[in-house]
């Protein structure tokens, strides 16, 4: 019964989060094509490199295309990254990522490059960067990613590194912006740095899977609840015996470390298995050793 409940809940969650990512990629494409690109700046990461290649093709190679080809270039660059991540990432996460990047490419090609704030470059950069960064962060929370450096940052987060995904952007972009300075001058670099900082800030604000919490669950249905946590979250559970000081009745304490994003799923499991359980959640704990980070 519990296994069927968990499987049904997981399938519904996967469908819903996939639909969310499609809508979020639409928002990302709007922020990019109606704010960032018309402002004449370049994004960070692999998308910025693809935008640079697009500019070189259009302005120096004389290529004439009626839509922004940066999305198509970005998709092509992601193919070898997908192949590399196939054996290292969870298949479900990677499939969601492929779906996300595919719709992102489609939306970037369909939405016209048109300035919403043509007379205020800085405002356009601020709005576009916050929209794109927020969309990318929520997409990561939905168990997917926007590809490119998102996958690299995710692989680092799944390992034993404390680096946030946004920090990966800032580190890699240092060399990238040096190239922008040589090709386009200081103003473009300054505005692009502002955009990248705001994008990274928004992304890490919404993507809090790297924030760990500890949960203590006092329950009299220890076996059922521990099994549900192991099956539903694939997290290890430590248990020890306890006695109520007032009632003098024996009970069990389950101890588990999860990411902050998994709290809702854990609460659903507890409510299904033991609605009378007493739960204590400790926020922002530092975890070292054999602990798997994931989306």
Descriptors:
2 domains; Alpha-Beta Plaits; four-stranded antiparallel sheet; 295 residues; elongated; single chain; 10 helices; alpha+beta
Describe the structure.
The longest helix has 35 residues, at 2-36. The chain is elongated and about 80 Å long. It folds into 2 domains: 2-206, no CATH class; 212-285, Alpha-Beta Plaits, CATH 3.30.70. The protein is 61% helix and 11% strand. Strands 2-3-1-4 form a 4-stranded antiparallel beta sheet, with helices on one face. By secondary structure, it is of the alpha+beta class. The chain has helices at residues 2-36, 45-59, 70-85, 91-110, 121-141, 149-158, 165-184, 186-206, 222-233, 263-273, and strands at 212-219, 238-243, 250-259, 278-285. Helix 1 packs parallel to helix 4 (91-110), helix 1 (2-36) packs antiparallel against helix 5 (121-141) and helix 2 (45-59) crosses helix 3 (70-85). It contains 10 helices and 4 strands, in the order ααααααααβαββαβ.
Number of helices: 10
Order of helices and strands: HHHHHHHHEHEEHE
Overall, the morphology is elongated
Report, as a whole number of angstroms, the end-to-end distance. Answer: 26 Å
Low-confidence stretches: none
Estimate the helix proportion, in percent: 55-70%
* Helical/strand content category: alpha+beta
Number of strands: 4
Total of domains: 2
Gyration radius from CA atoms, angstroms:
22 Å
Instruction: Give the DSSP E fraction (strand runs of 2 or more residues).
Output: 5-15%
Mean pLDDT: 81
Strand order of the largest sheet: 2-3-1-4
Task: Describe the main β-sheet briefly.
Answer: 4 strands, antiparallel
């Amino acid at each position: 019964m519990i296994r069927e409940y968990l499987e049904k809940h997981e399938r519904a969650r996967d469908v819903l989060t996939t639909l969310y990512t499609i809508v979020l990629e639409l928002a990302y494409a709007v922020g990019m094509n109606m704010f960032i690109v018309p402002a004449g700046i370049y994004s960070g990461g692999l998308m910025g490199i693809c935008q640079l290649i697009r500019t070189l093709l259009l302005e120096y190679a004389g290529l004439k295309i009626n839509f922004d080809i940066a999305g198509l270039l970005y998709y092509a660059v992601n193919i070898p990254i997908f192949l590399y991540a196939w054996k290292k990432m969870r298949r479900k996460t990677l499939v969601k990522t492929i779906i996300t990047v595919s719709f992102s490419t489609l939306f970037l090609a369909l939405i016209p490059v048109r300035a919403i704030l043509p007379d205020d470059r800085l405002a356009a950069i601020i709005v576009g960067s916050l929209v794109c960064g927020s969309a990318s962060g929520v997409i990561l929370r939905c168990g997917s990613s926007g590809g490119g450096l998102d996958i690299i940052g995710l692989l680092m987060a799944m390992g034993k590194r404390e680096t946030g995904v946004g920090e990966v952007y800032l580190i890699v972009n240092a060399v990238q912006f040096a190239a922008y300075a040589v090709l386009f001058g200081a103003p473009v670099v300054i505005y692009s740095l502002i955009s990248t900082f705001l994008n990274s800030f928004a992304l890490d604000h919404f993507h809090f899977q790297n924030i760990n919490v500890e949960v203590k669950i006092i329950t009299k249905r220890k076996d059922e609840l521990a099994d549900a946590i192991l099956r539903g979250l694939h997290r290890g559970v430590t248990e020890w015996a306890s006695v109520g000081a007032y009632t003098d009745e024996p009970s069990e304490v389950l101890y588990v470390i999860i990411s902050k994003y998994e709290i809702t799923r854990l609460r659903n499991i507890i409510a299904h298995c033991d609605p009378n359980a007493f739960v204590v959640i400790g926020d922002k704990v530092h975890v070292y050793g054999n602990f798997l980070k994931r989306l």
